[in-house]
């Protein structure tokens, strides 16, 4: 099932790439219970509003993203298949494998006409765009004040939406997306 999903995500990414003719790097795809899909990406930097909270396109190298949606299979009853999963806290730690320099950023909810809702941020890479990077995504579950759980959820899935997770990847090459431009 995981292989089929990975292939499907790559096909979707290829389709988006061919439709937009703009490169997008799928770093990894992960599925966690109870049926939440994470697609971690490096995308082309963009101008994001409000500009007071986001680095401008000309101050950055990439737009780092976590698309977080419900799977289309094996999901809780009443869950919108493919729907966005809100209220997560996601951060990215990007480490230059050559120099050890790093940057850390909290990913915020964004919306666009390609991915719809997703978590993302423009960042400057801590080194050359041609260097290789290690990337660690930390996912923290919603707090009790951010998300309330009904009794049917508690009985079926427990006292939280998901467990806190860390996903780590090495040898990530951002060069194609860092050299590209949306505008």
Flag low-confidence runs. Answer: 5-19
CATH class: Mainly Beta
The total of helices stands at 3
CATH-level-4 superfamily name: Periplasmic metal-binding protein Tp34-type
Strand order across the biggest sheet?
Answer: 1-2-3-6-5-4-7-8
Proportion of strand residues? 35-45%
Helix proportion of residues, in percent? 10-25%
Estimated structural class: alpha+beta
Number of strands: 8
The succession of helices and strands, N to C, reads: HEEEEEEEHEH
* CATH architecture annotation name: Sandwich
How is the CATH topology named? Answer: Immunoglobulin-like
* Tally of distinct domains: 1
Q: Care to give the gist of this entry?
A:
The chain is an alpha+beta fold and 183 residues long. It contains 3 helices and 8 strands.
Q: What would you say this structure looks like, in words?
A:
- The protein is of the alpha+beta class.
- It has one domain (2-179): Immunoglobulin-like, CATH 2.60.40.2480.
- The chain contains 3 helices and 8 strands, in the order αβββββββαβα.
- The chain has helices spanning 2-20, 151-157, 175-179; strands at 25-32, 36-44, 62-70, 89-96, 102-112, 116-123, 132-140, 165-173.
- Strands 1-2-3-6-5-4-7-8 form an 8-stranded antiparallel beta sheet.
- The termini are far apart.
Attribute tags:
eight-stranded antiparallel beta sheet; Immunoglobulin-like; about 180 residues; 3 helices; alpha+beta; single chain
């Amino acid at each position: 099932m995981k292989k089929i999903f990975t292939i499907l995500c790559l096909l979707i990414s290829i389709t988006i790439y061919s439709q937009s003719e703009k490169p997008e790097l799928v770093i990894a795809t992960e599925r966690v219970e109870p049926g939440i899909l994470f697609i971690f990406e490096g995308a082309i930097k963009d101008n994001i509003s409000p500009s007071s909270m986001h680095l401008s396109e000309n101050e950055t190298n990439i737009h780092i993203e976590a698309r977080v949606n419900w799977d289309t299979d094996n999901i809780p009853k009443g869950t919108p298949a493919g729907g966005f999963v809100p209220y997560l806290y996601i951060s990215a730690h990007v480490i230059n494998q050559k120099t050890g320099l790093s940057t850390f950023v909290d990913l915020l909810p964004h919306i666009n006409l390609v991915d719809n809702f997703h978590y993302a941020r423009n960042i400057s890479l801590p080194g050359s765009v041609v260097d290789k990077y290690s990337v660690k995504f930390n996912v923290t579950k919603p707090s009790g004040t951010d998300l309330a759980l009904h009794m049917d959820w508690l009985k079926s899935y427990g006292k939280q939406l998901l467990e806190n997770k860390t996903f780590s990847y090495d040898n990530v090459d951002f060069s194609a997306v860092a050299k590209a431009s949306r505008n």
